[in-house]
């Protein structure tokens, strides 16, 4: 009994110290996350106006702000209204978009490879450098505006978006890892149109899943190792390394999609 009390006190003190250091911004010895601050570009439709080098376009009664991300193949669209409100939802292919009317419509645009929803933003990833954003953006604007005008729900209700992943049964180290992810790392990553989801901790290795603009970002490995890993190791000595993982469902969806694309290609020939 006395041992259990000591463990609880030790955990409470350690977690309290972590929260205090996070609030006071004590990160001078820790490598900051490797992210690029997005340059905001407000958008209007039909009638472009140049203001200070930024393009502003009016689109009915909705103003959509476009922000660049560290991933050149992803853009962050901020419609000025709530998207999910809380949590995030990631759609890496059309099969996963079945539970979202908006994601389904965005995937119908030729050149769209991925869709990601945040609390108040939408990240769209294109298939490659050969696809021109100047061609895609007008269609994306129109799709987003038409959807919000229809007042349909973002998700069909088959699955709820993920919010915090803290569990009451987490041990001390896991609880601190999740606390740090939720308070310092995820907000920064979400500013760049992506997200990071905790998937496990074993033998000193933290397993994370990248979503949104982070999925195919050229700097994702640098972000994981030089940013997230360094920060976790600074606050939590038990962390030895950080690894990127994929869900089993992601692998199945990719295989199914590849088979479908192959079948369609065979039919054309």
Structural description of this entry:
- With 269 residues, the chain is of the alpha+beta class.
- Helices cover 39% and strands 20% of the residues.
- It is built from 6 helices and 11 strands.
- It has helices spanning 2-23, 101-107, 133-150, 172-191, 220-235, 248-268, and strands at residues 40-43, 49-51, 54-56, 64-68, 74-78, 89-91, 112-117, 122-126, 194-202, 205-212, 241-244.
- The strands form 3 sheets. Strands 1-4-5-8-7-6 form a 6-stranded antiparallel β-sheet, covered by helices on one side. It has a 3-stranded mixed β-sheet with strand order 9-10-11.
- A hairpin with a 5-residue loop joins strand 4 and strand 5 (74-78).
- Helix 2 runs antiparallel to helix 3.
- The longest helix has 22 residues, at 2-23.
- It is elongated, with a radius of gyration of 21 Å.
Structural class: alpha+beta
Largest sheet: 6 strands, antiparallel
* Count of helical stretches: 6
- Write down how many β-strands occur, each being a DSSP E stretch of 2 or more residues: 11
Shape: elongated
Order of helices and strands: HEEEEEEHEEHHEEHEH
- Overall helicity: 25-40%
Topology (elements, then pairings):
Elements: H1 2-23, E1 40-43, E2 49-51, E3 54-56, E4 64-68, E5 74-78, E6 89-91, H2 101-107, E7 112-117, E8 122-126, H3 133-150, H4 172-191, E9 194-202, E10 205-212, H5 220-235, E11 241-244, H6 248-268
Parallel strand pairs: 10-11
Antiparallel strand pairs: 1-4, 2-3, 4-5, 5-8, 6-7, 7-8, 9-10
Helix pairs in contact: 1-4, 2-3
List keywords for this structure.
269 residues; three-stranded mixed beta sheet; six-stranded antiparallel beta sheet
